[in-house]
Amino acid sequence: MKQTSLLLQIRTRCFPRWRAVPIFGPLLDDFVRWMHADQHYSLNTVSNYLNEVPKLVRWLRPRQVKSIPQLTLQHLKAAHSYFGPRHTVASGAVRVLERFLRAQGTLSEGEAPSPSPVEGEADQFAIYLREDRGFASATIRNHRRGLREFLKS
To answer: How does the average pLDDT of the chain come out, rounded?
Structure first.
């Protein structure tokens, strides 16, 4: 007996559109099956994470990622950091997708991105606060956050 696609079961009316999602479309059947059958996620959670995939695709587009071979662990870590405080479901979906791609063996490490000028200044400021002023780690984190917001504005 032929088994129907789980993606087809949970997205009956718009199945072709999901298969055409850039970057991840061809993998979505396997991703959904892996989440539900292998990782024991409920269909509701699978559906929620599936809804976040287009958001990740939109985030990757300006970073010139157009296919799975171009996608790296560094991209997914950066996406997780970006979505983390704003969209917790999207952040969780990125982590689960990372685990799936690692299990499939299709995710390369990639090069760590160089820090932005703002991050460079924040790092130097943190060193100053720690070594010269003797501030505690929590205080340094708070000051770094404030400096980043100031420099970005």
So the answer is: 86
